[in-house]
From TrEMBL:
Protein name: Membrane protein
Length: 218
């Protein structure tokens, strides 16, 4: 069972305008806990395994900006830069027989293209967990994008941003273009990387690849 709460939110607390340029700084702090009610010792013969239990804290800071004056109502040109950093401050999985596995949901990193951790087929599960824990990244540069829109007719967004596409949740690295005519809307979406910056779920950028050949990922 997960219990998550945003313990601090300070919204848009800085806003400045200069010749049509407007910037807003916002952020939040998130504390999340995964509580496992089954904390019995491992008994492989009886199929008894304890549930994962750990707690995390993460903070996000972002700067959003608009590059057009407010009097230009038909056009929008805006962007954002931001990132998240956090840490696991309680890890109940450390007592697991093969070592901590909290990295699976917070800080997992195996390189953008995979293979960075150098996991070998001969590595025991304990060795694999040790390698993954050494390569944990507790930060994500999650937002860096520009977006232009003309009324409801045309929109383009490019860079690193939070995806709104089905089956592509989290942060995406790429672009999307949308056009609308009357009640018909067409969207093109291209992604060259994914990441997650949800406070309780933190994962740095990686290439989402699903093609396997001879035991290797292309």
């Amino acid at each position: 069972m997960k219990k998550a709460s945003q313990v601090l939110f300070f919204g848009a607390f800085l806003s400045s305008s200069l010749q049509g340029f407007e910037a807003k700084l916002n952020g939040f702090v998130d504390q999340s806990s995964t509580i496992g009610f089954n904390q019995h010792k491992i008994n492989k013969e009886r199929g008894i395994y304890p549930m994962q239990q750990f707690a995390t804290i993460a903070g996000y800071l972002g700067l959003g900006f608009s590059l057009l004056p407010k009097k230009v109502s038909d056009h929008v040109l805006k962007g954002k830069i931001g990132g998240m950093v956090g840490s696991i401050f309680y890890d109940g999985t450390k007592k697991f027989e093969d070592g901590s596995v909290a990295y699976n949901l917070f800080g997992y990193y195996d390189g953008f293209m995979g293979g960075y951790t150098n996991i070998l087929q001969t590595d025991s599960l304990e060795t694999q967990n040790m390698k993954y824990n050494k390569n944990v990244r507790n930060y994500v540069f999650s937002d860096a994008y520009l977006e232009y829109a003309y009324k409801n007719y045309f929109e383009i967004k490019a860079g690193r941003y939070l995806s709104t596409m089905p089956y592509k949740s989290g942060q995406t690295q790429g672009f999307q273009v949308s056009g609308q005519y009357k009640h018909a809307r067409l969207t093109w979406f291209s992604s060259f990387g994914r990441a997650f910056a949800y406070g309780s779920f933190l994962m740095d950028w990686f290439a989402a690849r699903t093609t396997y050949s001879g035991g290797f990922t292309k």
